[in-house]
Write a structure and sequence with these properties.
Length: 244
């Protein structure tokens, strides 16, 4: 399902059933440590199994995928990627950094967001758009899909910037017919020029993200892929207002 919303340069693997903890590499087992929650142990294990399957597709031999800064996965040099887990679903997506600058994926159960969460993760302009989407296509829980899209954006954003991103710092708009979305990040989010952070001379992270989404009766998926090359910084005519 995930491959339908990713370009060919991104390899992915997904799983609807968990694998044995014996598939973890020793460093991963150590990173998992004494995590007591059985669900956490299972998702951690299976998503790494997916990651190794996806890495194999781009020719990378089995390697431990450890949690790094603020939980972001640490990929082998020259590789970018993202992982997600939701009830009964785990997935990983990876690409060569020469083909793709960043990727973010997220999966969510296809259920409405609790009203308080909805208020906390949406901007007024997004709530207006959600009302229109709901009227035109009521079978999709657009509020949960919007949350899913924002999480996918964050997973692409964070490895490039090392900065947190508030839910009010991104404005997401869907194209229901095309199965796409666009996320605009507010200037105030303050994208540190990535090169400053990494010393790599990379340009600043983009402020515009293009994504794709998919929905089944039980699952929502969103994926964002940032192409290599100069970033689209912003639309000068546009300022995202914070929630009042
Ligand atoms: C980090 C976060 C995005 C994870 O999303 P989630 O829906 O809770 O969980 P998922 O199962 O989909 O994804 C978990 C995986 O995300 C990855 N991840 C965690 N932190 C990450 C980070 N800072 N950057 C990139 N990827 C990260 C990890 O691979 C993790 O799996 P692992 O712990 O087994 O390694 C979420 O917990 C979070 O902090 N959200 C707040 C920030 C945000 O989304 N802002 C939106 C701004 S528009």
């Amino acid at each position: 399902m995930l491959e339908l919303i990713l370009p060919a340069a991104v390899a992915c693997a997904e799983s609807f059933a968990d694998v044995s903890e014996s598939t973890l590499l020793p460093e991963e087992l150590e990173a998992l440590g004494g995590a007591r929650h059985e669900g956490r142990r299972r998702e951690f294990t299976t998503v790494r199994h997916c990651a190794r399957r996806a890495l194999a597709e781009i020719g990378v031999p089995p390697v431990a995928v450890l949690p790094g800064e603020r939980g972001a996965p640490v990929w082998p040099r020259g590789v970018v990627g993202s992982m997600t887990h939701s009830a009964g679903y785990r997935a990983a997506a990876v690409a060569r950094s020469t083909d793709v600058r960043a990727v973010g994926i997220d999966a969510e159960p296809h259920e409405p967001l609790p009203p308080r969460v909805r208020g906390a993760v949406t901007l007024p302009e997004e709530r207006e758009r959600l009302a229109d989407l709901g009227a035109g296509c009521p079978q999709v829980h657009w509020d949960r899909l919007l949350f899913c899209a924002k999480e996918a954006v964050y997973k692409a954003w964070f490895p490039m910037t090392g900065r947190r991103l508030g839910f009010a710092d991104a404005s997401v708009a869907f194209d229901p017919a095309a199965g796409t979305f666009r996320a605009e990040i507010a200037e105030r989010a303050g994208t540190a020029p990535a090169g400053e952070r990494t010393g790599s001379g990379e340009p600043p992270a983009p402020l515009l993200y293009e994504g794709r989404w998919a929905a089944t009766p039980g699952l929502l998926l969103a994926a964002v892929v940032v192409p290599p090359g100069p970033a689209v910084r912003n639309r000068p005519d546009r300022a995202i207002r914070p929630p009042s």
